[in-house]
TrEMBL record:
<dbReference type="InterPro" id="IPR007197">
    <property type="entry name" value="rSAM"/>
</dbReference>
<dbReference type="InterPro" id="IPR058240">
    <property type="entry name" value="rSAM_sf"/>
</dbReference>
<dbReference type="GO" id="GO:0046872">
    <property type="term" value="F:metal ion binding"/>
</dbReference>
<keyword id="KW-0411">Iron-sulfur</keyword>
<dbReference type="GO" id="GO:0003824">
    <property type="term" value="F:catalytic activity"/>
</dbReference>
<dbReference type="InterPro" id="IPR034457">
    <property type="entry name" value="Organic_radical-activating"/>
</dbReference>
<feature type="domain" description="Radical SAM core">
    <location>
        <begin position="204"/>
        <end position="368"/>
    </location>
</feature>
<dbReference type="InterPro" id="IPR013785">
    <property type="entry name" value="Aldolase_TIM"/>
</dbReference>
<keyword id="KW-0479">Metal-binding</keyword>
<keyword id="KW-0949">S-adenosyl-L-methionine</keyword>
<dbReference type="Pfam" id="PF04055">
    <property type="entry name" value="Radical_SAM"/>
</dbReference>
<keyword id="KW-0408">Iron</keyword>
<protein>
    <recommendedName>
        <fullName>Radical SAM core domain-containing protein</fullName>
    </recommendedName>
</protein>
<keyword id="KW-0004">4Fe-4S</keyword>
<dbReference type="GO" id="GO:0051539">
    <property type="term" value="F:4 iron, 4 sulfur cluster binding"/>
</dbReference>
């Protein structure tokens, strides 16, 4: 007879695990658990949603899964396949489709010391229930701009080929198509060739930070990069030639300087300023945005005066020690970031936070207090972006010390909304014009 106080495997998602061939199984009775900081917890039923279309399941090599045993009322580290005793097993995590924010991370135990860090993806907790996969997440934005069902491969390639023929002389356009569209299948670059929504504008090969989770630059000891960094600096004219037609014709048109495939765009502020002026001489339509670490307040103000509409400031933590441990800033600190936000707001610009969501850290009470101080500078919008990093490796690298009560990610958003009624939340850069 099933213990009355414990969740039944018929009512809660079961633990996922993989064998050495990458085949994924659901455990006959262990339940899926979640990671919050260093704590392994049993999620509530409402914390799970069906795995969104466009998501993926990742096998975590060298890492044992952790499930909840309802008979023993305790977490259990699964080390061998119950269907094939003696065979090792590996944890399975969900990489969520865009517009979805993780509530819990995938719990795991490293099978040996000195494992290399996992690749730079996010790792949400997942399980199996009623014939389908589930993940601990919620939909944080109902914008459909990066949903896979709206990307037709044949249409994308035809559009890309047409643009390449028209602008064969333009290095910037050639990079967006040959590298971003064809090599990395970047959703923003694909939207650019389709003439819709937000277009990317990478331009900076260098950076003034050495983020431990940088997507395009790493030391030998760090994780594998997600994509190679741009290797040249396009001219303002090349960028304007590409971006003006997009802003003139695209629905909900937007262009964004500062991408995961480049360094810090503020280091190319003079180039961007000239590009913005060329664009605004040709059209007032659409939103010009900058994704940035906000390290250089004077350059932020320069770009705002040139016609920059909005900035999105990346933030791993609003606490100085943890911010520095992640970003490893070169020649600036969190006070410069705060000053950049103030300058943008003083010039009536729009400011978003690109908040890296890490359950058990982002929702700590002390972090919440520091984040409220940051929001009070005039933040308009918070993008709830899943932190793409190996969870346990990250906590070790920033020397995280747990101890504060956690609010929960959903409750964090709720409390921020209550404290700042004008604050908006989402996942993507919002178009303003």
């Amino acid at each position: 007879m099933w213990p009355r106080l414990y969740p039944s495997p018929e009512k809660s998602p079961r633990l996922l695990f993989a064998d050495r061939e990458g085949r994924i199984y659901d455990h006959p009775y262990l339940l899926a658990m979640g990671l919050s900081g260093y704590d392994v917890v049993l999620p509530e039923k409402e914390d799970f949603i069906p795995l969104p279309i466009g998501s993926a399941l990742y096998v975590l090599p060298g890492r044992y899964p952790v499930g909840y045993d309802p008979y023993k009322d305790e977490p259990v580290v699964l080390k061998e396949n119950p269907f094939n005793p003696g065979e090792p097993v590996f944890a399975v995590a969900a990489y969520l489709a865009p517009a979805h924010t993780q509530v819990y991370l995938c719990p795991y135990v490293e099978s040996t010391d000195n494992l290399p860090p996992l690749p730079l993806f996010s790792y949400a907790a997942a399980g199996w229930h009623k014939g389908r996969f589930w993940a601990t997440a919620f939909r944080s934005d109902f914008d459909h701009r990066q949903e896979v069902r709206f990307f037709d491969e044949t249409r994308i390639e035809k559009a890309a080929e047409k643009i390449l023929k028209r602008f064969s002389h333009n290095r910037f356009i050639k990079h967006l198509i040959e590298n971003c569209v064809r090599r990395y299948r970047c959703p923003a670059a694909r939207n650019f060739v389709l003439g819709r929504l937000e277009a990317p504008a990478p331009c900076s090969p260098s950076c003034n930070a050495k983020c431990i989770g940088c997507l395009s630059w790493q030391t030998k000891e760090g994780p594998h990069i997600a994509q190679e960094r741009i290797t040249f600096v396009p001219t303002p004219e090349e960028m304007a030639e590409a971006l003006i037609p997009h802003l003139k014709t695209a629905r909900r048109a937007m262009v964004s300087f500062g991408q995961g495939c480049e360094g810090e765009p503020l280091l190319q502020a003079k180039l961007i300023e000239k590009a913005i002026r060329l664009i605004r001489q040709a059209t007032r339509r659409g939103t010009i945005n900058l994704n940035t670490n906000a390290s250089l307040p004077d350059e932020i103000e320069r770009l705002r005066l040139a016609g920059l509409d909005s900035i999105r400031v990346s933030l791993s933590s609003a606490r100085d020690s943890y911010y520095h441990a992640y970003f490893r800033p070169q020649g600036y600190d969190l006070n410069h970031v705060r000053e950049s936000i103030k300058r943008m707001k003083n010039r009536h610009g729009f400011v978003s936070l690109n908040l890296f969501i890490f359950p058990g850290f982002t929702d700590e009470k002390e972090e919440f207090g520091a984040l409220c101080d940051m929001v009070s500078l005039g933040i308009d919008f918070i993008q709830l972006r899943n932190h793409a990093i190996d969870p346990l490796w990250y906590l070790k690298k920033i020397k995280f010390k747990a101890g504060n009560e956690c609010l929960g990610i959903k409750n964090l958003v709720k409390k921020l909304g209550q404290k700042f009624p004008r604050l908006r939340f989402g996942y993507f850069n919002p178009p303003l014009r």
